[in-house]
Amino acid sequence: MPDNKISMAVIKRLPKYHRYLKDLLDKDVHRISSKELSRIIGFTASQIRQDLNNFGGFGQQGYGYNVEDLYHEIGKILGLTKPYNTVIVGAGNLGQALANYTSFGDYGFKLQGIFDINPRLVGMRISNTDVYDMEDLGAFIKEKNVELAFICTNKEGAQDVADRLVEADIRGIWNFAPVDLNLPEEIVVENVHLIDDLLTLSYFLKEKPETEA
Amino acid sequence: MPDNKISMAVIKRLPKYHRYLKDLLDKDVHRISSKELSRIIGFTASQIRQDLNNFGGFGQQGYGYNVEDLYHEIGKILGLTKPYNTVIVGAGNLGQALANYTSFGDYGFKLQGIFDINPRLVGMRISNTDVYDMEDLGAFIKEKNVELAFICTNKEGAQDVADRLVEADIRGIWNFAPVDLNLPEEIVVENVHLIDDLLTLSYFLKEKPETEA
DNA sequence: TAGATTGTTAATCGATTAACAATC
DNA sequence: TAGATTGTTAATCGATTAACAATC
Questions:
Q1: 3-state DSSP: chain A helix, strand, coil percent, rounded to 5?
Q2: I need a labelling partner for A76 at 20 to 30 A (CA). Which of A176, B40, B133, B164 fits?
Q3: Side-chain half-sphere exposure of B168, counting CA atoms within 13 A
Q4: Distance (Å) from CA B32 to C1' C1?
Q5: Which chain B positions have a beta carbon within 8 Å of A14's beta carbon?
Q6: Which nucleotides on chain D have any atom < 7 A from a protein Cβ?
Q7: pLDDT tens digit string along B30-67?
Q8: Is residue A37 a contact partner of residue A58, using CB atoms and an 8 Å limit?
Q9: What tens digit of pLDDT does each residue of B112-168 get?
Q10: Sign (positive/negative) of CA torsion B208, A59, A16, A13?
């Protein structure tokens, strides 16, 4: 289990490897060299070999990598070996969209409940999942062994939700509210700040020449 | 106009500065030092000064930075000086959620239309915006001077949509489909690969100790 | 003026790329 | 065996941090 200190840069590339290896498998490609993978994924061959060797020697000299094996190894590294129970907090547009994203389930993320403060939403069913009252969040998490929560509230409500989740011993938070949460360091958190990404786009739109016809 | 070669690392931090400066303004804080900003934003004071000095000397020795000025300067750097016309392609759950995200409008991103192949969706109105047939996408973009498109289709449809957008002289693409698009390099692109972020979370959930009670 | 804090250069740290011996 | 390609060490490149003179 070699994970002394993997850099964030490497970790952030792992899902992309996983995605491209799946594509190769779907195309019945069973063997690939770092050079050829480099051509399609866009990282240098050297970087690919360095990245993979953080976790073990998956390749074979003179041959390359077995696509299926490597795909499964990376899946294991990413923790796709057991299901995680999840909840969505905030049943607005984004919360509903994520609830309907069935592909999360394919990766083992099992949506157990959706929570909202709005009494008009409580009792509804979204994508085969019940919407519950926010008051019941803590008890539900403990009872159903929920490990991961998606926060889809607005900016104002996010920290309070986070506090309740921590109180209920959540392990990870996927935060879609445009605010940085204050959390104990043992909580795993990943932020999706859409506005930040949009502003990055805006920066480059401004930079690039307008005309090109 | 000092933008010789700003590194991606710096650019990706700009939206966060913008966000925190807005918070400070809302709290009636009008002056801040790099040291104090460091405390709240989490970058080192040195990094803050380095970052800002890529774009000009916005501070004053012995005083610090004027929050309002800095906020507006960063807004300008991010290109928030003129509105951008946008379209959403794909009126599924995510497309609808983004259409309802009114805060994009506050930053100057004006949603002009939503496009879908599904004839049952065409003609609907989502968040005050009409849903049009995909066939009309190219003509619409040219007619309405649309510069930015959000791709919210599935993986399979995304490249075809991208090709049409490029053909219609789009300038930027915000891609939510879980695939890397093949685009001419003058097109500005920002990917939101939710699955990748979720797998990163999964990686750390696996790494961190399970117990903590 | 004295104190504070910037702008900027130099030092350090970390990540990427190149090179090549090992070996399938 | 000869050719290909990995695993790994060394070299390079870039980003972050530290230090401090300039100056408000």
A1: 45, 20, 35
A2: A176
A3: 26
A4: 24
A5: 199-200, 203
A6: 2-9, 14-19, 22-24
A7: 999 999 999 999 999 999 999 999 998 999 999 999 99
A8: no
A9: 999 999 999 999 999 999 999 999 999 999 999 999 999 999 999 999 999 999 999
A10: positive
Round to whole Å and give the CA distance between B202 and B162.
Answer: 30
**Cα distances (Å, whole numbers) of residue A34 to A50, A70, A80, A93:** 10, 12, 24, 42
Summarize chain B as % helix, strand, coil (round to 5): 45, 20, 35
Q: Which residue has the higher pLDDT, B189 or B56?
A: B189
3-state secondary structure of A110: strand
Q: What are the tokens at B207?
A: 């790494």
A140: its two tokens: 């539900």
CB contact under 8 A, A198 and B190: yes
Phi first, then psi: what are they for A130, rounded to 5°?
-80, 145
How far, CA to CA in Å, does B162 sit from each of A209, B115, B169?
A: 20, 13, 11
Q: Is the CB of residue A126 less than 8 Å from the CB of residue A96?
A: yes
Residues of chain A neighbouring B192 (CB-CB closer than 8 A): 192, 194, 197
